[in-house]
C-alpha cells in the first residue's frame, strides 16, 4: 500500500514544490511561477505520502493554512507580498504556543497555559505572511534524559534519511519535517543543543542565536537560563530569512536583548577573507573521539576556510565540551524541576519515563550543587568569551558520530549526551549546526560554528561561505528514499 501513495510531487510547472528551499520558493512566488496555495498543496501531499512513517506532526489545521495561503495568493497577484516568507509553509515544535491550535508539549499531562496565547515568534512569522501548518513532534516538554522509551501517545519522529535511525532531540519533529519536506522550515527550541542536534542528525542548518536574541514569550519553559528558540532550515540563506523575521527585542520576554539587531541577509554572501577561524582541538580527553567521518568533515571544513581566505588557527576551549555539560546539567535539572514541580507532583503517573526520570533527578538535587554550578558557569562564560578576542569564528563538531539506530537506546543516549552543544548553551554565544555531506552509510554529517555574542550576521556569513564548499546544493530526502528505508526500520 505504501508504494502506491502520492509522493507529493506537484503538477504545477512540473516541479516537486515540497523539495524547494524557502529562498527558491520565495523567488518563484514573487515571479508568479508558482502560487502559495500550490506550494501548500504540495506540502500536504508530502505529509500524506510520508508522515505516517516520519511522524513529524502531532496536529495540523489544514483549513486555517489554506485560508492563509489564499490571502498570500491574492497578495502575489496584486504584487503586494509582505516579504520573502509570504506564502511559505512552516510548522513549530509543540512546546510553542499557538492560539487556536492546541499545545501539549507532547505530553498526556493536562496543560494550564492560556489557550489564547500565540508565541511572539509565531506572530512575527505570520505577520510576514508565512503559513502555519501545524505542531511538530517533540520529546515530552521538550526535554528528558536523552533516552527514547516509546511510551508516549505519539510514536517518536524518524530520520528521513533512514527511518530506522534517530532524529536527534528534542526538536525531533522539527528536524524530521524539514528534512522530509512536510514543512519548508520549522522552529524548535535549544536548551542544551536541541535545535542543533536534530539539525545535525537530519542534514539541516540549525541555529541557536545569542541568548535573549529571539523572544521566548509564549514558549513552554524548560530551563530559564538556557532556553533559546531557533530555526531549522534547508540552507543558510533560508536560516537568515527566518532569523531576520523573528529576532529582536520583545518586552514580553524579561531576558530579551534590547540592543540593536543587525540583519543577517544583507551581508550573507560577503565571504570570509581575512577572518580568523579557531579550529577547536580539545574535544574530550578520556572520552570517545569523534568518528572518522566527523573528523574528515572537520578537516574538510578547515581546509575550505583556508582556501576561501580565512586564517585557520588551532585553538582550545577553556575546558572540553563534556565538562561544560557536567556544569550545565545541575542547572538544567534544578530549573526544570522548579518550573514543572506542580505537574510532577500531581501528574507524575501520566509522564513518560524520560521526563519523569529527569524531574526525579531535579527534585533530589542539592541547592549547594546548583549554586556551585552557577558560580562555575559565571567564570566559564567569561573565559569562553575571551576566545573571541583572538578569533572571529570557532569550528568544532556538533556530534561525535552519525545518528544511531533509534531502537539502540544506549547509542541514542550516547549520541545526545556526547554532543558538543553544551558549551554555547552554557555560555549563551550564538552557534550553528551546518551540514557537511553524508557518511558512507548515507547518514548526514555536520559541523558546528560559533561566534561572539550578538554576532549572528558574521556567524551566518561564515556558514554560507562554508556551505558553498560542503553542500552547495542542499536537498531534502525524497519520498521514494524515505519509503525505501521502511524495511530496514521494521527489520
Structure in words:
With 491 residues, the protein is α/β, with parallel strands linked by helices. It has one domain: Amidase signature (AS) domain (Amidase signature (AS) enzymes). It is built from 16 helices and eleven strands. It has an eleven-stranded mixed sheet, sandwiched between helices. The protein is globular and about 60 Å long. The chain starts with 21 loop residues before the first helix and ends with a helix. The N terminus is likely disordered.
Properties at a glance:
16 helices, alpha/beta, 491 residues, disordered N terminus, Amidase signature (AS) enzymes
Short description:
The protein has 491 residues and is an alpha/beta fold. It has one domain (2-490): Amidase signature (AS) domain (Amidase signature (AS) enzymes), CATH 3.90.1300.10.
Could you tell me the radius of gyration in angstroms? 21 Å
* Content of β-strand: 5-15%
Share of helical residues: 25-40%
| Poorly predicted spans | 1-11
CATH class placement: Alpha Beta
Name of the CATH homologous superfamily = Amidase signature (AS) domain
List SSEs in N-to-C order.
HHEHEHEHEHEEHEHEHHHEHHEEHHH
Going by helix content, strand content and strand pairing, the class is alpha/beta
The coarse silhouette is: globular
Distance between the termini: 18 Å
Count of separate DSSP helical elements: 16
Taken together, the total number of domains comes to 1
- At the third CATH level, what is the topology name? Amidase signature (AS) enzymes
Amino acid at each position: 500500500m505504501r508504494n502506491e501513495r502520492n509522493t507529493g510531487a506537484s503538477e504545477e510547472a512540473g516541479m516537486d514544490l515540497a523539495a524547494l528551499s524557502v529562498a527558491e520558493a520565495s523567488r518563484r512566488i514573487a515571479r508568479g511561477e508558482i502560487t502559495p496555495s500550490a506550494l501548500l498543496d504540495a506540502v500536504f501531499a508530502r505529509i500524506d505520502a510520508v508522515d505516517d512513517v516520519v511522524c513529524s506532526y502531532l496536529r495540523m489545521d489544514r483549513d486555517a493554512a489554506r485560508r492563509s495561503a489564499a490571502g498570500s495568493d491574492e497578495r502575489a497577484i496584486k504584487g503586494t507580498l509582505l516579504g520573502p516568507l509570504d506564502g511559505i509553509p512552516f510548522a513549530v515544535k509543540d512546546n510553542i504556543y499557538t492560539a487556536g491550535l492546541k499545545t501539549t508539549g507532547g505530553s498526556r499531562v493536562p496543560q494550564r497555559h492560556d489557550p489564547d496565547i500565540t508565541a511572539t515568534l509565531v506572530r512575527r512569522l505570520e505577520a510576514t505572511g508565512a503559513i502555519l501548518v501545524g505542531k511538530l513532534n517533540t520529546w515530552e516538554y521538550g526535554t528528558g534524559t536523552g533516552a527514547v522509551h516509546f511510551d508516549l501517545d505519539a510514536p517518536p519522529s524518524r530520520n528521513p534519511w533512514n527511518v530506522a535511525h534517530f532524529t536527534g532531540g528534542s526538536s525531533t519533529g522539527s528536524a524530521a519535517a524539514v528534512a522530509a519536506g512536510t514543512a519548508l522550515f520549522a522552529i524548535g527550541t535549544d536548551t542544551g543543543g536541541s535545535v542543533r542536534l536534530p539539525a545535525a542528525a537530519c542534514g539541516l542548518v540549525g541555529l541557536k542565536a545569542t541568548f535573549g536574541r529571539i523572544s521566548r514569550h509564549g514558549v513552554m519553559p524548560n530551563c530559564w537560563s538556557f532556553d533559546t528558540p531557533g530555526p531549522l532550515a534547508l540552507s543558510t540563506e533560508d536560516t537568515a530569512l527566518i532569523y531576520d523575521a523573528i529576532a529582536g527585542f520583545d518586552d514580553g520576554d524579561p531576558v530579551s536583548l534590547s540592543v540593536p539587531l543587525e540583519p543577517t541577509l544583507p551581508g550573507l554572501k560577503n565571504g570570509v577573507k581575512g577572518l580568523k577561524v579557531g579550529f577547536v582541538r580539545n574535544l574530550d580527553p578520556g572520552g570517545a573521539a569523534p568518528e572518522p567521518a566527523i573528523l574528515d568533515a572537520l578537516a574538510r571544513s578547515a581546509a575550505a576556510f583556508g582556501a576561501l581566505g580565512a586564517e585557520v588557527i588551532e585553538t582550545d576551549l577553556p575546558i572540553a565540551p563534556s565538562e561544560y555539560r557536567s556544569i550545565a546539567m545541575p542547572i538544567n535539572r534544578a530549573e526544570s524541576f522548579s518550573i514543572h514541580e506542580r505537574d510532577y507532583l500531581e501528574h507524575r503517573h501520566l509522564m513518560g519515563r524520560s521526563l519523569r526520570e529527569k524531574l526525579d533527578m531535579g527534585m533530589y538535587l542539592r541547592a549547594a550543587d546548583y549554586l556551585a554550578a552557577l558560580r562555575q558557569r559565571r567564570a566559564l562564560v567569561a573565559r569562553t568569551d575571551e576566545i573571541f578576542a583572538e578569533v572571529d569564528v570557532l569550528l568544532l563538531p556538533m556530534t561525535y558520530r552519525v545518528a544511531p539506530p533509534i531502537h539502540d537506546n544506549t547509542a541514542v543516549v550516547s549520541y545526545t549526551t556526547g554532543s558538543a552543544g553544551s558549551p554555547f548553551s552554557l555560555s549563551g554565544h550564538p552557534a550553528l549546526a551546518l551540514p557537511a555531506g553524508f557518511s558512507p552509510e548515507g547518514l548526514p554529517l555536520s559541523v558546528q560554528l560559533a561566534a561572539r555574542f550578538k554576532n549572528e550576521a558574521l556567524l551566518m556569513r561564515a556558514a554560507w561561505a562554508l556551505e558553498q564548499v560542503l553542500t552547495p546544493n542542499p536537498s531534502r530526502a525524497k519520498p521514494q528514499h524515505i519509503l525505501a528505508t521502511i524495511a530496514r526500520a521494521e527489520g
